[in-house]
Each structure stands twice: as structure tokens, then as C-alpha cells.
Design goal:
mainly beta; 13-stranded antiparallel beta sheet; 3-stranded antiparallel beta sheet; 24 strands; globular
Length: 373
Amino acid sequence: VLGRSRTWSLFTSGTLDVAPLWQLTASARFNSTHVTVDDRIAVPYPAPAQGLDSNYTYRKLNPAIGITHNPSRRFGLFGGFNQGNRAPSPIELGCADRNAPCLLSNAVASDPFLKQVVARTWEVGARGRAGEGGWYFALYRTDLADDILFVSSSTSAGYFTNFGKTRRQGLEAGLNGRIGPSINWSAGYSLIDATFRSDAVLLAEGNSSRGTVPGLNDDEILVSRGNRIPGIPRHAFKLAGDWQSGPLLIGAQLVAFSSQFVRGNENNQHQAGTFTDLSGSTRTFVGSGKSGGYAVLNLNARYQIAPRLQLFGKVANVFDRRYTTGGILGENAFPNGTFSPDADSWVRDTFLAPGAPRAFFIGVRYIDKPERK
């Protein structure tokens, strides 16, 4: 199977001084994306409908408008609206049938059409400078229509689908400054409230609340408006600093993220324990359905051997912190550490993706054009 996605765009932008200290910027971008899937399997299918060939064109005109007010050189306000779109990829179009889920999201089938995702964002904020440093603060809301999500139907299989409406909203704030002639620092925080804005029924065999809503099948859950989207931490914090003395620079970065729901827990109701569904089936589930929060410290150093030559080093995850970056609900076929051919003995568990352990890097960097002092 050969998949292609080709996009051409036409873009225009202009800025207008609408009043003293006020500027208005407007732009528009027209996108045309052509997505094709070419089935190159030589063996003919029993029926043409089972072939993988597809040919879709997605077009969208996306406007944007922004306004800024700068009463002084050290303080400014800004706000704006913009729209963007994303066409489905060939792999998403080839794995979009809930009745024929794909293994590890990489097997393709003759699947339903997916709509393009359209995002509309509003943003307001302020920025400025204080002493030797600066700051910024912004509030934003992004509403997505026909968001494409991957729905897990088992541990290793699932499908892509247009969900309906989702929203990401929150705030971003940051500070940066300088202490004396040799120390620079920066700090940033973001709050992301990512929620579903439409009700939907999804497959979720590993969710403890499956089959507990009247009218749904045994392996389905009800996702309600306001449920948080899995895989997106609500809080993120970053702190960085460096010290420089002559040719030597030493720096450190701390990154921290809060917990997140794992995939398969889109309704945020999964719990560990034994539960009985409406059909009378009793199942035991392990794991909270969440991936825990974590913080990681990284160190780096650089020595300027010559104007164009640097020696650098880095230590990632200095304290060798064990953490996870996400997860999925599924069945564990290795209940005692070895594979069990008896599917009835498999454990319904929370699979977690481990973060990178401590790592050391050292190298030499040649810069074609030396940095200006």
C-alpha cells in the first residue's frame, strides 16, 4: 500500500496602524490537501469494495486576525483569533472502522471517510520587560470540530474516528531574568484544560465501567461532555538556568508534569477492583487508569574551545527518576511473568509507557558561523 498526502497553500497577510500605539494584523490561508491510498497488492479481492484504494481532497480557507496595544516599550497587550485545519493522514483513513480495528495503528483496511479537523483559537494576553528580564501571560481557548482520536478496542488494536467536538483551554505564563553578569534564568507554567465537548459511545474493553450504561453494548463506555481527554497533563512547569564564566557555561533544566488519564479511560471512570456489568458479567481490573505526575532534572555544560568549536556534555534525568509518560487500558497476557495461552487468566491492567532513564551525552560541535558577542 502506498499512501500520499500533498498540500498546496495560498497565504496573504497585512498589518495596519489603526491608531497611535495600536496595530491590527489580518491574514488568510487557503489549504488544499489531496490524500490518496494506492493498493498495490497483486492478489485481487473477492469484491471491489474490499480494496484499499481511496482518493480524497480537503479544502479550507482559514482566517486570522490579531490586535496589539503597546503603550510603552516595556509593556504590551495582545489578542486575536485564528482558524486552522488538518486533513486526515493516509494511515488514519486506512484505520477508521470500529468493526475492523487495526493492530498497533499500522494495518490498513477499506474504511469509512474521515472529516478534516478544524481548530478555532481565541487568545488574549500581556507581555513586558522588568529590569533585565521579561514576562508574559496569556489565556487561550481552542475548539476543535471533528477531532480525530485513536480509540483502543484491545491492548494492541484500535481505530481512528471523528469524535465531534473537543476543547483545549487554559493559560500560559513565563518569567525570565538575569542575575549579575553571568547568571540567566527562566520559568514557565501552563494549565491545559483538555475536555470532550460532545457525548459519544466508544469501545473500551479494558475500562471497569464498560457495559454499565443502559442501552450500550458490553464492551462500550459513554463519554460525556466535560470528560478530560487522556494523554494530556493538566499542569506543566519548567525552570531553567545557566551560569557562564569565560568559555565555560553550565546549565540546568527542571521539567514537571501532573498526572494524566490513560487511553481507554476517556470517560474518566475506570477504577481498580471487581465490578459487575448490566449483563451480570463480573470482571476484575488492575490499575488506576492514570499515569502519575513526575519531575525530571537535566544538566548541561559547554566549553568554547575555539570561536567555532565547542565541547558539550549533558546528563538527562540526573536522579534516574522512574516515571511514565502515558498509558493504555488493556489485557495482560503475562499474568505471572510468562505468556499464558488461557485467555481467561489474562489480567485487565493499565499498561504504562516508561520514561527515559538517566543518560549521558558528550560531543564536539563545529559552528560554521561563530556566535556574535
